[in-house]
Amino acid sequence: MQNRFGRDAFALLVTAGVLVWLTPLVISTYTLTVLIVYGMLALSLGLIWGYGGILCFGQAAFFGLGAYTYAIAAINIGESTLPMLLAIVVPFVFAMMLGAMMFYGRLGDVYVGVITLVVTLILFRFINSTAGPQFVLGKARLGGFNGIPGFQTLNVPGSPDSYIWGDGLYYFAAAALVVVLLLVSWLLASPFGRIAVGIRENETRMALMGYDVSARKTLLFALGAAIAGLAGALFANWAEIVTPSLFSLGQSAEIIIWCIAGGLGTRSGPIIGAAALAYLKFLLGQQTLVDNTVIMGLILVLFVLFLPKGIVPAVVSGWTMLFGRRGAGKAAALRRNRAGRGAVNHG
Amino acid sequence: MDLFAVILVEILYSIASLILISAGLAVVFGMMKVINLAHGEFMMLGGYATIVAVNQGINVFIAMLVIAPITVGLIGLVVERLVIRHLYGRLVDTMLATWGISLLFIGLATMIFGNTTTGISTPISGFPVGAYQINGYNFFIILVAMVLVLGLYIVLKLTRLGLIARGAMQRADMSAALGYSPSRIYMATFFCGAALSGLAGAVLAPLVGLVPTSGGAYIAKAFITVIAGGPSLISGLASSAGLFGVTSQVFAFSISPMAGEIALLVAAVVLLRLMPQGITGRFFKGKV
């Protein structure tokens, strides 16, 4: 087990290194940074949905919460290290409370979906209505639908004047994504991750084996939120403004589309899905012939109908079918079975 | 006294509009266990159908009560045949597919009608009550909602068609064995649900400025009302719409309209936590 994680980590570092080095030759680092942020956001949902079986319709809530936490804290503190940490901790704690409420109540799939959706809406409505001067946190005005501009962006820890921006922010975001991905891989290889997959496959059985299902789901949910919060903080640094649209339902929908298209139950799937679709949207935004919502909608419908497992699992199984040696293919299939095939549990 | 009358009308109106917004979704979810996230966009299309028809010189009531429901019903029929019928029984997948459909409709509406606000004026004028002004159109909406609930009840409970539909929903195999095609019944039910959504969108169109994204404002409310209502279609719809309507209006009048909106959402979260099966999962069991 430990060995496999080591091999995984090595492969991941090499791939990431090559990608980080090569892609700026094709796409500007400014665009790449946001693709990385979206990749991290998709990974956060991919973790809780693909491995934990928790369909959260409001992952954007944690994304927005992270971004707002960063912005508000950065204005008040004037330095970026502590706000970055807060942007991870606040969504984590918030999701902990929300998750405890849902999972200790033993709510089913649909109800978890509805509640997360409603909570996102509450946040969206609330932030949208805070335009007045009475909504102030410390030195930061919440600004309603105008959002919060002009906060301290990322700087080298300890020296608020040396900003990390442009290429620097790109390398920082890429490094953050790699670290998160390593942590997620480690988590999934650990007993906690194995049991999370077990809960996804059969909740009752895991409960009967003596695992505290509610506590584990709550923790996994909160970890997903923490990753989304970090993505939010990075996004705030990239955009240099935070607006209520971060909380919008459209944002939540996009995260779900990325995960579905990329492939659930894989680590790379959501990231690839997010980067590819966000880049596609960016390209589509440069033409006016077809509204890009149409394309996004079509992609979601077609994927659900024809490729419900997503790109990455389809490519992997195609690869093993074509090129896999018999033994190797079998071993890979066995491994995949042990890791869980990644299909959502359609209850 | 006047204020009391105004508040009473507002509360009734709020309940009625919640019923209207949710009826289409309730039929589709309550009968077929399909959560149609494109419901809001069906309403938006109903609104546009009305506006286009009125601009062609058709009487506004005919446009709202006849043309819009039929148009949207037919669109729903196409959607059901092309997408949803492949996904029956896969709750999460239908949610995702219908979400995709909703994005598709938003995009198409933006391409056709543009990203600008359109609207028509309310066909019924307001009248004063003491020092206050009441919107006469509110009474029309209350009336439509009452007729709708009554009509649904009569169709489902007292007609043979309703009996067959309810039977097919409970045991599709049994009704197939008795000679009714479940596929056709699902199709017809989805048509009715979509038509109800179109009707709601049309009736509410004069009150709101319509943009291609207006559907999003309805879907969450409709979704909450239906889920909180629980398994019984009509009593669930009426009870949860009543509860949420009163809650939101009380908060709206005592604090602010925004507080009303947020109170509704908080009430929904608390309610679902206490009664995960919805109101009719605990009370009024076995009613329609």
Q: What features would you describe in this structure?
A:
The complex is a heterodimer of chains A (347) and B (288). Chain A is mainly alpha-helical and 347 residues long. Chain A has one domain (2-248). In chain A, 71% of the residues lie in helices and 2% in strands. Chain A has helices at 2-22, 29-51, 59-77, 81-103, 109-128, 167-189, 191-201, 203-208, 213-239, 249-262, 268-284, 292-306, 311-323, 326-339, and strands at residues 136-137, 140-141, 148-149, 241-242. In chain A, the strands form two sheets. A two-stranded antiparallel sheet of chain A has the order 1-2. In chain A, α1 (2-22) packs antiparallel against α6 (167-189) and α2 runs antiparallel to α9. The longest helix of chain A is centred in the middle third of the chain and has 27 residues, at 213-239. Chain B is mainly α and 288 residues long. Chain B has one domain (2-212). Chain B has twelve helices and two strands. Chain B has helices spanning 2-32, 39-55, 60-82, 91-113, 136-158, 160-170, 172-177, 182-204, 215-229, 233-254, 257-274, 279-282; strands at residues 127-129, 132-134. Chain B has a two-stranded antiparallel ribbon. In chain B, β1 and β2 form a beta hairpin. In chain B, α1 (2-32) packs antiparallel against α10, α2 (39-55) crosses α8 (182-204) and α10 (233-254) packs across α11 (257-274). The longest helix of chain B has 31 residues, at 2-32. The mean pLDDT of chain B is 88. Chain A binds chain B through residues 55, 101-102, 105-111, 113-115, 117-119, 121-122, 125-126, 129, 249-250, 253, 256-257, 260, 290-302, 304-305, 308, 344, 346-347, and chain B through 35, 83, 86-87, 89-93, 95-97, 99-108, 110-111, 216, 220, 223-224, 227, 258, 261-262, 265-266, 268-269, 272-273, 276.
